[in-house]
Amino acid sequence: MGKVIGIDLGTTNSCVSVVENGQPVIIPNSNGNRTTPSIVGFSKKGETFVGEAAKRQAITNPDRTISSVKREMGTNWKKKIDKTVYKPQTISALILGQLKKDAERYLGEPVTDAVITVPAYFNDIQRQATKDAGTIAGLNVLRMINEPTSAALSYGLDHGESQKVLVYDLGGGTFDVSVIDISDGNIEVMATSGDNRLGGDDFDFRIVNWMTDGFRQQHGIDVSKDFAAMQRIKEAAETAKKELSTADQTEINLPYLVTAKDGPIHLQMMLTRSAFEEMTKDLVARTEEPLMRALSDAGVSKNQLSKVLLVGGSTRIPAVQRRVREMTGLEPSKNINPDECVAIGAAVLGSTLSGNALTSAGTGNSLILFDITPYSLAIETIGGVAARLIERNSPIPTRYSKIFTTAAPFQSTVEINVLQGESFNARENKSIGRFRLGGIRRAPAGVPQIEVTFDINADGILEVTAKDLDTGNFQSITITAEERMSDREITKAIESTKKLLEDKG
Ligand code: AMP
Description:
- The chain has helices at 52-57, 88-107, 124-136, 147-158, 200-219, 227-243, 273-285, 288-298, 318-328, 341-353, 487-503, and strands at residues 5-8, 13-20, 23-26, 36-37, 39-42, 48-50, 65-67, 79-81, 84-86, 113-118, 140-146, 163-170, 175-183, 186-195, 249-260, 263-272, 307-311, 368-372, 377-381, 385-390, 395-396, 398-404, 414-420, 430-437, 450-456, 462-468, 474-476.
- It is an alpha+beta fold.
- It folds into three domains: 5-198 and 287-372 and 494-499, Nucleotidyltransferase, domain 5, CATH 3.30.420.40; 200-281, Alpha-Beta Complex (Actin, Chain A, domain 4), CATH 3.90.640.10; 377-472, Sandwich (Substrate Binding Domain Of DNAk, Chain A, domain 1).
- α5 (200-219) packs across α6 and α5 crosses α7 (273-285).
- Bound molecules: adenosine monophosphate.
- Residues 10-13, 171-172, 200-201, 238, 241-242, 245, 312-314, 316-317, 339 line the site of adenosine monophosphate.
């Protein structure tokens, strides 16, 4: 087996790492940078740009540039450019394909095997979409690992002592929090929680709204429909946000933002850190509930925590750090790189999957990783009740079976509706797939015995089987959610992705 790369496929930036001579290293991209913007652009001439090249052309080509596509993973988002329809999986595949190329250039050999990280809070459909993106990029996805677990893995390598660690991961688009136990060479995820629609982008949007409102008040012009102006505003908002992580105030200047009747109009505004904190305090507060839930699910009180690891670029925001300090009573650890540790953990896991032992630097012992599933899983039964088969925070891989029966006399088929979520009311959960089991022998209601089995593999992906114990008939789920890509679509996308990345040399 060749080298296995570890990929952190981020909302804003992605990062790729590999283990060389027993040490994880970050692979720089062709511009020498250690992270690559998760942006794809298509020029009118038919060229494809990925990463920094895509970011550079975003302002002049906003309607043919796609960023933050990770937020759309597992949805039926689509974007038509010229004659091609792109899905989140195909855009992510272009990013992954670029990282694969960067790794091949760096290592001087072909790379096919990869470990890709996903937010712990990604649901089954989002995980499957990520895996499909890897396949489309020509990668053999050996394993998907939760981002906080990956961060803890990179941390656990350097610190052998026993401890309970809280990983607070606020990236560009998602928030994850996990409680992890590192002891005796085991890295065990005890509980995980989060919000997969909360991240740095939301902080940017607040500044964007403040800028467009201010501009309207000053000049009576609504720029929100002007694509090119909005692209510049978005970039300036993110830059201002980052500056406010170290400065108390920042000036935003966008000359020639729009042209009015009597000439060009410039945007010039001053944003203070305290105004920024005021406009985003509800976002910071939204991290509190998942954090408390993760602690209570793990049965760990905050004074049993020995470390808090901050992961993800948005944890550089001072108000976020302050809140974490208030919530946990601990000073967050400064010795891990929030942009790189997730990819490093994935590379370390990749290296172990290719047969190398995973060892803890602290103890020299080999490390074993235990991960968990973030959601409870159930099937819908009579009266709209969600009957649970797997509780959230169960260790994975796992398998669980339960016997169900028919509700009506002489019922010959049952429909299995697979649910993900915490409510006992089926309708309040997310349906992640449905299928039918037919051929049930004629019998009064309640007599047939249908065994439903849920199998979650190490990637956190679920397979469901229903078996009629009388006839032996069984049926496995094919997730019918329309967000899924068919095998045929994936095969076609592999070819077109290869071509798009080849064309750009
Ligand atoms: P990630 O997905 O972990 O790469 O996180 C990217 C997010 O972190 C983006 O929303 C960035 O704008 C944000 N970010 C990066 N650096 C900083 C900084 N210095 N201050 C505030 N946010 C930052």
